[in-house]
Amino acid sequence: MSDSTRNELGMDRKITRRDFMDGVALGVGAVAAGSLLGAAGSAPAQAAPAQPGAVSRRGGVYPPGRDGMRGQNQLDNFGHQLRAGTFWDNAGEPQATGETYDLVVVGGGISGLAAARIFQQQAGRKARILVLEALDDVGGHARRNDFSTTHRQLIGYGGSQSLDAPSSFAPVAKKLLDDVGIEPERFEKYFDKDFEDRHHLGSGVFLDKESWGADFLGRWHGTPDYRKVLAGSPVKAATRAKIEEIYNGKVDYLAGLTRAQKKNKLDRITYLEFLRDHAGADADALKYLQTVSNGNWGYGIDAIGGLDAWVEPFPGFRGTFQPYWDDKPDPRMAPTAHKLWYAEDEYIYHFPEGNAGVVYSLVRKLLPEALPGKGMQTITTNRIRYGRLDQSGNRVRIRLNAPAVRIKHVGDPGTATKVDVTYLEKGKLRVVRAANVVMACQNSLIPYLTDELGDAQREALFDSRRLALCYTTVEVRNWKAFKKAELAHVRYPTAYWQSIGLDFPVSMGRYQFPDKPKDRALLHVTSSFCKPGSGEHPQDQAAYGRRQLAGTTFDEMEFRLRDQLARTLGRFGFDPADDILSITVNRWAHGYAYEYARPWDKFWPAGPLPSHVARQRWGRVAIANTDSAPRAYVDAAIGMAARAVAELTGARLPKVANGVDGIDPRKLGSGGR
After folding, report:
1. DSSP-assigned states of every residue in 343-355
2. Which UniProt keyword terms apply here (predicted)?
3. What is the C-alpha to C-alpha distance for residues 149 and 646, in angstroms, rounded to an integer?
4. Can you tell me the distance from the alpha carbon of 200 to that of 187, in angstroms, rounded to the nearest whole number?
5. Which pTM does this prediction carry?
6. Residue 41: is its pLDDT beyond 80?
7. What percent helix, strand, coil does the chain show, rounded to 5?
8. Can you list the domains of the chain with their CATH numbers?
9. Average pLDDT score over residue span 45-50
10. Whole-angstrom Cα distance, residue 185 to residue 253?
11. CB contact at 8 A, 414 and 82
């Protein structure tokens, strides 16, 4: 690729570029995105100088607004050394801080902060609680991206997205949201449900010439007729007709089988096998559909089970199941299917900053002085006062840039009443003592932090391999090209970035979504990193995806992004060189918690489940995270926090921990088996 083409796309422009890793890549060691830059070839895109943090209006560091590529920090070295078993060779002697707490939480994401609040509710406001967070900001996967200009404030999300189907939340999750002031029904007002209709925006699909022989953009409003949408594309007529039949036809692709037999068949095959072997999809139809499941599941049709594809619902089952739904979910469906079976919520429960809004609400409840204001409408625009998170007089303290490196009971774990927690701060090892500890980090990190676990639990913790994905937020000068193209979002079946679209139209309090096409706006760009078409287990695909995600330079990601936008919207007036103002890449090498699914996990749902083995309390230490459910949802994070706290305090276990997690055992039907 010539430099002139790169420059035409704007690769030489000195815009704000930010690249974030989740702190863990290829296991435990963090791979700083900055270290991936400058690969062979033409000069990489230029980033603003790395800063320790953006400065807030009141002074001090403000992590959500920081500029520049993140360079290496203390996480990079200690993570690799922990994994290699060499960390303690030259670590030095930890220094006792003299601090004692009723609870220490390792991890400042939703699970960790929820555990802190639930413990506080049970133990009282006088309880001393410390939250240790390895990164420079609270939230974990609920990451907020701020964009401040002289024109307007724009706020996006770099990770955990929305409150998905809050009507399906267990009582413990609903209670906590109410406690921190989140009223889901208010999103009925905050979310502009008429935005797309008012601006006559629809959907699109882009076929790239590298995969299809020629570039093609298909567009539609409402329910598409794919014979028309793909007319003039490089897809042959017979394949277009088959795609239309799969999406909108009512053919019974499992004719001759009873309803129970159909579900038994789907339980044993992948969605790809259903489409290929029963629906008659040819290679191009399968290629078109390969990534249809990536956004929700983190992997493609070759890995999602047939039963879960039916329930999602993905195309191809309208004629196979009449009536479409059963009265009760089949027990073999993945946890998500059970969660959503009875829910009819619209997908509107979204803070502009994503589920960082939940994080900020928890921070405000735990430390009101760190986030002033009242009402959920002020959460988005009121900034955390980071200097007040870890003050010595606080009953609750949140300590950032403080990764835990060792968890050890003072005495035998079976009888000990205290736990020493060693963490790293500014290059020095420090120790605090706690009566209780909640591990709210991801499961695969825990075995490196303690030598007190049995082999079975260690193996189960390591088994919790997460899925890899990347959320990129692009600030653009305006969204006139989207208006002219009549597009709100575009799917890319075979390109590097799998979806590009306008951000959710949410306005809360003083924050106003850019409603006019002339306004500066944010685009949300996503890709799930797996091994499409391999037919491998989703977790094996995730391991491959992590390597791809960690090994890709920011420069390449940016080039592909600009190239896709130019080829999709260039004829509608979009100029990536002039119209892109900033790019923030949020890489999640360990993103979605993997939830058990057929046909891969034969132990599901009867058990025993590895997640149950992994999350066992030992001594005064309990585990809370979405790996423990396992479901990658806010209510799962809260439910597992409540379970962990109950294990430590002796309180009654919440319903979310009964039976199969996230599934009310009273609602489990026979599913026709």
Report:
1. ----S----TTTT
2. Oxidoreductase
3. 46
4. 22
5. 0.92
6. no
7. 35, 20, 50
8. 1-50+194-235+467-589 (3.90.660), 98-140+351-464+601-661 (3.50.50.60), 236-340 (no CATH)
9. 38
10. 40
11. no
